[in-house]
Amino acid sequence: MPSNIAIIIEREYLSRVKKKTFIIMSILGPLLMAAIMVIPVLLAMNSNEEKQILVVDESQLFTQTLKNNESIKFIFMPVKLGAAKALYQAGEFDCLLYIHPQIMTTTAGIQLYFKKQPGINTVRYIEKSLENEMEKAKLEASGIDKAAIASAKTNISLATIKLDEAGKEEKGSSELATIVGYLGGILIYIFIFLYGVQVMRGVIEEKTNRIVEVIISSVKPFDLMMGKIIGVALVGLTQFLIWIVLTTGIYTIGTAVLAEKFDKPVQSQSIEKVMSDRMQAMPETEKEFTGEDFKELTQTLDSINLPLMLGAFLFYFLGGYLLYSAMFAAIGSAVDNETDSQQFMLPVTIPLILSFVMAQVILNNPEGSIAFWFSIFPLTSPIIMMVRLPFGVPMWEMALSMVLLVLGFVFMVWLAGKIYRTGIMMYGKKVNYKELWKWLRYS
Question: Is the pLDDT assigned to residue 199 strictly greater than 70?
Answer without folding.
Answer: yes
